[in-house]
Backbone:
């Protein structure tokens, strides 16, 4: 069994730390990354198991961010990629981004007439993410999630397609 290089070990550890860091979000898959970029997220690192595939995917699905994705993506070995997520995304890309800072006071004081969605004790992270996605599509000013689930958890970000950044 081959051993990881120091650089590969560093990547695995960086993604593990990012999952525990309340200032960071781990974006598993192309759609969360695409929306994070479209809404101005600070991207820390993008890794892929296949740069050519990722470049084609970005050109086909999100030409507006394709250059940023292509320039920022780092190719890593498939076995290292598989260790970055419990269920590595089929799109072959995982990234770390800074979470968007949202002030509850600013959200509640916003004079716009858009609604605010309040979710209480969402049963599953994916459902929480789906509610974020629907709220973004409906033009809601924001989502307030009450309960134990973190709307920035990778599963919620997958369910929300990264629209937590909207």
Residues:
């Amino acid at each position: 069994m081959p051993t990881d290089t120091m650089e590969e070990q560093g990547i695995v550890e960086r993604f593990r730390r990012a999952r525990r860091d309340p200032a960071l979000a781990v974006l598993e898959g192309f759609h969360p990354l695409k929306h994070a970029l479209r809404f101005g997220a600070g991207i820390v690192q993008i890794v892929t198991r296949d740069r050519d595939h990722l470049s084609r995917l970005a050109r086909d699905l999100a030409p507006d961010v394709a250059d940023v994705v292509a320039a920022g993506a780092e190719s890593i070995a498939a076995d290292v990629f598989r260790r970055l997520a419990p269920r590595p995304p089929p799109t072959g890309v995982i990234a770390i981004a800074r979470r968007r800072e949202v002030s509850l006071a600013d959200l509640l004081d916003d004079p716009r007439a858009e609604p605010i969605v309040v979710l209480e004790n969402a049963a599953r992270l994916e459902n929480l993410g789906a509610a974020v996605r629907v709220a973004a599509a409906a033009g809601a000013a924001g989502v307030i999630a009450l309960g134990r689930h973190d709307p920035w958890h990778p599963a919620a970000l997958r369910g929300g397609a990264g629209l937590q950044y909207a």
The CA atoms of residues 39 and 77 lie 29 Å apart.
